[in-house]
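At this stage, I wrote out one protein, both as residues and as discrete backbone shape codes, and that material follows here.
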Amino acid sequence: MSASLVDIRNVSHRFGQQAVLKNVSLTIEPGSYTILLGPSGSGKTTLLSILGGFVTPSEGKVFIRGEDCTSVPPAKRPTTTVFQDYALFPHMSVGSNVGFGLRMQGVDAATRTAKAREALALVGLAAAFDKKPHQLSGGQRQRVALARALVIEPAVLLLDEPLGALDLKLRRQMQDELKAIQKRVGTAFVHVTHDQEEAMALADHCVVMNDGRIEDEGAPELVYARPATRFSATFMGESTILTGTVTEAKDGSVTIATPAGAISLPGSAAAGAKVALAVRPEHLVLGEAEGHVSLGAAKVSDVVFQGSFKRVLATSTLDPALQFIAKAPASATVRPGDTVAVSCKAADIILLAN
């Protein structure tokens, strides 16, 4: 197994009396695309800033390529950062912008020009070398910022919400391009976002953060299918959450008393323990489903057509506090005011660590 490229060990950070990171440890592998995902205030941007050298942590260490970089300034560590506002120099040509980092390193003009042209070709902007930033679209300026960061061949490229200023169509296009570029250059990318869709589109390593801690991490498919905590289940996609109490636990299965009735499923928990269960919207079945776990009946409050499916919100008739979020086929005839049976498979119910 290859050594970790980045090793963040027990990092905590405070701004005054406010703790923004709380004993965070994280490893990043060579060639990976890591997404730091979380709401505002979760600590993801502070963690990126510590990795980039813009902030020195109050406690803990940051190792890059096995070297302690905790107190190394940004210009002297093997990282570069792409910011949301791109920070291009308006008076410089695109080529000069891309070559600026090389210029600061003392690279000669001919080599700078050649490398800048190569980097612009990599991001599909070979023809923009002599243009000024104001002559480019938002998506093109974003790619120039990416080329400028990649041209100095960093060990780790840091991206701070780089797609946040783009419209939806362009953002999706740039997601595809970012992933393709990362695969071509093989550099490890660490990308901050609060957008779940962006995380699932780009990451091979997803890190879900909340209140200064890492709640969950792993491949996005795993984090989505088997979230570790209640927060992860509701932030990385939507979930219906049922709370309950374990009434029986034996032979690798548990029975849980919930507002929707008793539910038995594989898992381990102590009898009497308070637990939470999650069900993803695509796993809820509206209408009779023989052989599935019954979750009672629910009154439909809202139906939103979303192209390939209908997003259905419904309130349990057994407990008004229990709200179901379901994906129904686009052809489904369900309407607000309908009362429907709700069920799912036991294998699709997630027992959360909470």
Notes: The chain has a mean pLDDT of 91. The chain is about 25% helix and 35% strand. The CA atoms of residues 139 and 240 lie 36 Å apart. The chain has two domains: 6-233, 238-352.
